[in-house]
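Lab notebook, design round three. We kept the backbone fixed and only want residue identities now. Task for the bench partner: fill in a sequence for the structure below.
Input structure tokens:
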């Protein structure tokens, strides 16, 4: 007997889809940030208060990958990795990367389809990888990278458009 019923949806391969991340906002972790009821479609329409810092992403430099992990003993969770790239190594970015590596944060990710995703709703994101590189040739990357990992009971929450941080919050 199945624990849950399988819901189907109509898949339309002709719907336009854009890859990549447009913006990322980071804030100090706040327990219980999701307020109110979460919709059946995993949509959050109410968030608690947080001070969000905007990190605009250059094209083709940030990824968000969610992986479902199931075990034979019934454990199930989702690991989401948010990999961010900050061009040009300098002291200010180094300090920011170090703060992200040690801090407890949550993130809102805006993809190029205009969808907003919340990471760190259940527990703070953890820095699981990072690097600084200068490259060897003139055209090689000079950058810092950091991977922030979220382990949660489910895939990231989708946020209502009204929850996009505004300029006063950034």
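Proposed sequence:
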């Amino acid at each position: 007997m199945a624990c849950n019923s399988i819901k189907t949806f109509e898949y339309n391969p002709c719907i336009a889809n854009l890859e990549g991340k447009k913006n990322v906002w980071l804030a100090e972790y706040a327990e219980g940030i999701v307020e109110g009821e979460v919709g059946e479609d995993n949509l959050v329409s109410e968030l608690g208060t947080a001070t969000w810092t905007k990190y605009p992403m250059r094209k083709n430099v940030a990824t968000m990958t969610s992986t479902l992990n199931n075990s034979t003993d019934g454990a199930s969770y989702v690991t989401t990795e948010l990999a961010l790239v900050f061009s040009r190594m300098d002291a200010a970015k180094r300090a920011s990367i170090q703060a992200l590596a040690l801090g407890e944060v949550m993130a809102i990710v805006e993809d190029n389809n205009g969808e907003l995703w919340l990471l760190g709703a259940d527990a703070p994101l953890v820095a699981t990888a990072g690097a600084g590189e200068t490259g060897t040739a003139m055209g090689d990357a000079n950058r810092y990278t950091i991977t922030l990992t979220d382990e949660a009971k489910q895939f990231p929450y989708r946020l209502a458009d009204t929850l996009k941080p505004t300029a006063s919050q950034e």
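Keep this in mind before ordering anything: The radius of gyration is 17 Å.
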